[in-house]
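Subject: design request, 489 residues
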C-alpha cells in the first residue's frame, strides 16, 4: 500500500507504518481530514469535525513518537459517536435537546483512548438518543450509506459505520442497545463489536436504556477491534455496573486456530424473517468456518422469537426514566415562552425531542404506569430471563453462536419511516444478545444485490476472545472486510 491508500488501511496497518516511520501522524490525520472535507457533504456522517485540535494533537504525537515514548495507539485518528461526552466539545446525541450541550468531562471510553494516544477527528451522526435503525431520526438529518447514497446505513450508529466504510476514519465508537453497532456494521460492510454488558464503562455515555446500553467499536478488521477493546475494557470506579473481570490482551488470542471450536446456529433464526438470498450467503460463510475445523451444531432457542416485543417494553421503560432529566433547567434546550412550570416542561420537551423519542417515552411511561406495570413491564422482565436461559443452555453445548446480523441488506431511506414495527423488526437477530448481556459482533461475509451483509458471532459472557478469534480467523481466509464502496475507493 502507498500513502494514497492511507484511508484504506486498518488501524493496525497505520500503527505499523507509524512505528516504521513510513508515515507521520500529521500525514495520516490530515489525509482523513481531507477526505472528510471532500465527502462528508454527501454522507452527513459527522456532526462535528475537530480539525484544528486533531492537527495540533497529531503534531504532539509525532514529537512523542520521535522521543520513542509512543503508547499503543499514539497518533492514530479516530471518530466518536456523538453520544460519548467529550470534554469541551459539543455532544448532541443528535437531538435538538442537546444541540447546545458542551460536557465538562470525557466519557471513560474517550479518556482511555486519549490516554492510549488516539486522536479524535470528530463526532459522528446518529439516530436521536440512539433510538432508531436507519439513522433517519437525527436532528441533523439522515446519514447515507456509502454503498448507495439513497440507502440507509442502518442505525443508530450510522455515522460511525458510514465513516469507517467510506474511509473517513479508520475506526470509530458506537453504542449498542439493541443492535446499533452490529446492524449498521452489517449494512455498510465493516466490523462492529458490542462487548459483554459491563465489559466497557458506560460513564459519560449518554443513557438510553441503562440495562442494555454497551459501548463498542466499528473497525476494518477483527484485529483492530481486539486492539481497541484491550485499551478500553475493564473496571471503572465511575460505573458501578462495569466488571472487575480481568482484561486479557485480545490481540494475542486471535491468532489461535478455531479447529475444534463448536459453533451453534440458532434454528429459529434460519426459519423466519431471513431473506433467502442472505441465507445463501451465510451458508457459504459457515462453510468457510467449517473448513477451518469449526464444528457446526444446530441449537434450539424456543423463546428467542420474543426478543423484539420484550426489548421494546424494557428499553422504552428505561428510556422514559433516563430522559426525564431533560427538563430545560439542567441540560440543553429550554422553551422561551411559557405560562407556568408545567407549560415550561411541556414546551421544552415538546420542542426538544423528535417524534421517535416521544413515541418511546410515551410507550415507556405507559408500561411503567400503575395498572399496566405487571401486565407489560414485569412480564417483559420475566421473558427476558427466559431468553437469557435459552442462551445459557445453548452455551453448554457450543462456544460461539453464529448467524445473520440483519434480515436483509440496506434498505432505501424513507422506506420504513412510516411503519415503526417494520423498522423495529430490523433488529430481530441482534436484540437477544443485549437482553442477555452477551458479547456479539458483526463481520462482513458477502454481498446480496451488490450490498454488503453481516455474519453475527455471539459469545458467552466475557467471551470476547472467542468471537474475535473466529472473526479474525475468518478474515484470514476471506476478503469481504477489504471491499470498499465504488464511490469511496
Ligand atoms: N434499533 C434499536 C432501537 O431503535 C436499537 C437501538 C440501539 O441499539 N441503540 O431501539
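Subject: RE: design request

Done. Sequence follows.
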Amino acid at each position: 500500500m502507498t500513502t494514497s491508500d492511507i484511508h484504506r488501511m486498518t488501524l493496525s496497518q497505520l500503527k505499523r507504518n507509524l512505528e516504521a516511520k513510513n508515515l507521520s501522524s500529521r500525514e495520516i490525520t490530515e489525509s482523513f481530514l481531507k477526505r472528510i472535507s471532500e465527502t462528508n457533504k454527501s454522507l452527513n456522517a459527522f456532526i462535528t469535525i475537530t480539525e484544528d485540535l486533531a492537527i495540533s494533537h497529531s503534531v504532539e504525537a509525532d514529537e512523542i513518537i520521535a522521543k520513542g515514548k509512543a503508547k499503543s495507539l499514539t497518533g492514530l485518528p479516530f471518530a466518536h459517536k456523538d453520544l460519548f461526552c467529550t470534554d469541551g466539545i459539543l455532544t448532541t446525541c443528535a437531538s435538538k435537546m442537546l444541540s447546545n450541550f458542551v460536557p465538562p468531562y470525557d466519557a471513560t471510553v474517550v479518556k482511555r483512548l486519549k490516554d492510549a494516544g488516539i486522536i479524535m477527528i470528530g463526532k459522528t451522526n446518529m439516530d436521536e438518543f440512539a433510538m432508531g435503525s436507519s439513522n433517519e431520526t437525527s436532528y441533523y438529518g439522515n446519514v447515507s450509506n456509502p454503498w448507495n447514497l439513497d440507502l440507509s446505513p442502518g442505525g443508530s450508529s450510522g455515522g460511525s459505520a458510514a465513516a469507517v466504510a467510506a474511509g473517513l476514519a479508520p475506526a470509530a465508537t458506537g453504542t449498542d442497545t439493541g443492535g446499533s453497532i452490529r446492524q449498521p456494521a452489517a449494512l455498510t460492510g465493516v466490523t462492529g463489536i458490542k462487548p459483554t454488558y459491563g465489559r466497557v464503562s458506560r460513564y459519560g455515555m449518554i443513557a438510553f436504556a441503562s440495562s442494555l446500553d454497551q459501548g463498542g467499536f466499528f473497525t476494518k478488521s477483527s484485529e483492530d477491534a481486539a486492539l481497541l477493546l484491550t485499551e478500553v475494557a475493564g473496571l471503572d470506579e465511575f460505573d458501578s455496573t462495569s466488571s472487575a473481570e480481568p482484561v486479557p490482551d485480545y490481540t494475542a488470542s486471535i491468532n489461535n486456530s478455531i479447529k475444534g471450536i463448536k459453533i451453534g446456529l440458532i434454528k429459529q433464526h434460519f426459519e423466519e424473517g431471513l431473506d433467502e438470498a442472505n441465507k445463501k450467503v451465510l451458508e457459504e460463510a459457515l462453510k468457510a468456518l467449517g473448513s477451518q475445523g469449526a464444528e457446526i451444531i444446530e441449537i434450539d432457542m424456543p423463546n428467542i422469537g420474543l426478543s423484539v416485543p420484550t426489548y421494546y417494553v424494557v428499553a422504552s421503560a428505561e428510556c422514559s426514566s433516563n430522559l426525564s432529566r431533560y427538563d430545560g433547567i439542567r441540560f440543553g434546550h429550554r422553551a422561551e415562552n411559557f405560562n407556568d412550570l408545567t407549560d415550561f416542561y411541556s414546551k421544552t420537551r415538546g420542542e426538544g425531542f423528535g417524534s421517535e423519542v416521544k413515541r418511546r417515552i410515551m410507550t415507556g411511561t405507559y408500561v411503567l404506569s400503575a395498572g399496566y406495570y405487571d401486565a407489560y413491564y414485569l412480564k417483559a422482565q420475566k421473558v427476558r430471563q427466559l431468553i437469557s436461559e435459552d442462551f445459557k443452555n445453548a452455551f453448554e453445548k457450543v462456544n460461539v453462536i453464529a448467524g445473520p446480523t440483519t434480515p436483509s441488506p440496506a434498505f432505501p431511506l424513507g422506506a420504513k419511516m412510516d411503519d415503526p414495527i417494520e423498522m423495529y423488526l430490523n433488529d430481530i437477530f441482534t436484540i437477544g444478545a443485549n437482553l442477555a448481556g452477551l458479547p456479539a459482533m458483526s463481520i462482513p461475509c458477502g454481498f446480496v444485490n451488490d450490498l454488503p451483509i453481516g455474519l453475527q458471532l455471539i459469545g458467552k459472557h466475557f467471551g470476547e476472545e472467542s468471537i474475535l478469534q473466529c472473526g479474525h480467523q475468518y478474515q484470514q481466509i476471506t476478503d469481504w472486510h477489504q471491499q470498499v464502496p465504488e464511490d469511496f475507493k
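The domain at 3-261+440-488 is CATH 3.90.1300.10 (Amidase signature (AS) enzymes).
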